[in-house]
Amino acid sequence: MQINNVCLIANIYQLYRLSIVVTFTTILILNTCYMAHYFPKPAPLSPRAGAVERRNKKDKKYKGVDVNKSFYYLWFEYLKRSDKYKLACENNGKGMTKLYKDFGNLHSDQYTGELGFWEWWTEKDKNDQLRGERLFGIKGHTVEGFATNDELLESKDQIESGEVKVIILPTNVTRSTIERRLAKLLKQLVLNPTEVTARYHPSNLKVDVNSLEKCLKAYDMRLEGKTNVEIGAVFIFEDAQKVLKDADLKNKCNVGAYRLIKKAEANIKAVESGMFGVGH
Q1: Cα four-point dihedral sign 223, 228, 230, 233
Q2: What is the mean pLDDT of the chain?
Q3: pLDDT tens, position by position, 178-196
Q4: Which residue has the higher pLDDT, 167 or 35?
Q5: pLDDT tens profile 223-270
Q6: pTM of the model
Q7: What is the DSSP string of the chain?
């Protein structure tokens, strides 16, 4: 859920350019909101050696996760497992035109592995926008700093439509006075909370990335010709030969592997329709 922001927008000159009448004679300092992308699930971080090394040297936490733990990397990998999408890639998107236009030929050699995913994620379109932001990001207002003239003008349409509000703050009063006035204004403000989604949005925000990863591994093992017992044994950390001699363990492995593979198949089918994270 995203709530429309109350934006504090700076600089009296900017206000005049937007034809907003100002009656204060003091210098005004206002704050602004500007457009930025955020992701429903943590965004992937660069897997390049230099970037990883720099992250490891710093104490601060980075906003994001390693590629192999990224929900979006798994989305990318699950779509690669689709025979239907592979056929479309071999025929320039025929049969899956919309999806192909957005995701492209995932079976190209340049998109192999984590580095290949990163190249795919960071490719720019004709508007200089990263693919990852365009497909999975949500563009929204954030309140983080003082405005420039350009930032205020960029918000003109949102101000006129009422999507964001402008508050004028004089600087010749005390902080407590400003806080009191703001509190009064906020009580009068009518909010219209709306749900904002990405072009390709997670089917379930609570989806367990580790579970998706485990299901994909089980599915790949099945493609390699492994039996359910062999697959299940890997996930309960038991030797397959030992499992074969124990009826209870054998049944546990069979059932466990079957469920993992079925979940993987459900998500492969889902990504063919632009969805991901089902059955978890």
Answers
A1: positive
A2: 81
A3: 888 888 888 888 777 666 7
A4: 167
A5: 999 999 999 999 887 777 777 788 888 899 999 999 999 999 999 999
A6: 0.71
A7: -BPPPEE----HHHHHHTT------S-B--EEEEEEEE-SSPPBPP-SHHHHHHHHH--SPPSSB-GGG-HHHHHHHHHHT-HHHHHHHHTTTTT-HHHHHHH--TTSGGG-HHHHHHHHHH-B-TTS-BHHHHHH-EEEEEEEEE--HHHHHHTHHHHHHTSSEE---BSSS-HHHHHHHHHHHHHHPPP--B----SS--S-TT--HHHHHHHHHHHHHHHTT--HHHHHHHHTT--HHHHHT-HHHHHHHHHHHHHHHHHHHHHHHHHTTT------
User: What burial letters (b/e) apply to 241-269, b meaning 16+ CB within 10 Å?
Assistant: eebeeeeebbebbbebbeebbebbeebbe
Indicate the domain borders of the chain. 6-38+137-188, 59-135, 209-271
pLDDT of 5 > 90? The answer is no
